[in-house]
Amino acid sequence: MPGRPSAERVAAEADAGPTWLRSSVAPKLHLTAKSCRAFFEERLAESGATFAAWTVLAALKLEGPMIQRVLAQYLSIEGPTLSRHLESMERRGLVVRKRTGADRRAATVEIAPEGEELYGRISSVAVRSQQDMLKGLSDQEVAQLSTLLDRILENVGPR
């Protein structure tokens, strides 16, 4: 019968999954984010740093000293997770926590001199990694990608 797909074609399409899923942006964003993070983590490890250390140092460099609870919100991580990272970073001399009371979460976090040195060393790793990730994209495409990602974050980010 004309216009009706064959049984074989229907079976092949069913095995391939829904068509919309092939063009879905969410799985592509997820895979891209995971791949970029793994790529960047590998580069950071070669320089003796971790992704956690980078994100904390970069946030403090951008925004200045912050209360630990605010820093956790800024990084979109749980307070206990940040506390573990900060304890490790404090032992390494990368950050300093200045407590204003008995509540450890009320501590203000600042970059220590060793943290400044590490930030200086790994910021060039971050720049080179970003350049490698965006290879083949024009400046205009990078700007457009950034704008589009900002819009998606506005749609789904924390309220």
List the helices and strands and how they pair.
Layout: H1 7-16, H2 19-22, H3 25-46, H4 51-63, E1 66-67, H5 68-75, H6 79-91, E2 95-98, E3 108-111, H7 113-133, H8 139-156
Antiparallel strand pairs: 1-3, 2-3
Helix pairs in contact: 3-7, 4-7, 5-6
Number of alpha- plus pi-helical segments: 8
Global morphology: elongated
Strand arrangement in the largest pleated sheet? 1-3-2
Strand content: 5-15%
Structural class: mainly alpha
E-strand count: 3
Q: Which spans of ≥5 residues are poorly predicted at pLDDT below 50? A: none
For the CA atoms, what is the radius of gyration?
A: 22 Å
Order of helices and strands: HHHHEHHEEHH
Beginning-to-end CA distance, first to last residue: 53 Å
Main pleated-sheet profile = 3 strands, antiparallel
Q: Give the overall pLDDT as a whole number.
A: 88
Helical coverage, percent range = 55-70%
Report on the architecture of this protein:
The chain is mainly α. The protein has helices spanning 7-16, 19-22, 25-46, 51-63, 68-75, 79-91, 113-133, 139-156, and strands at 66-67, 95-98, 108-111. A 3-stranded antiparallel sheet has the order 1-3-2. α4 packs across α7 (113-133). The radius of gyration is 22 Å and the shape is elongated. It starts with 6 loop residues before the first helix and ends with a helix.
Kindly summarize this structure in a few lines.
By secondary structure, the protein is mainly α. The protein is 69% helix and 6% strand.
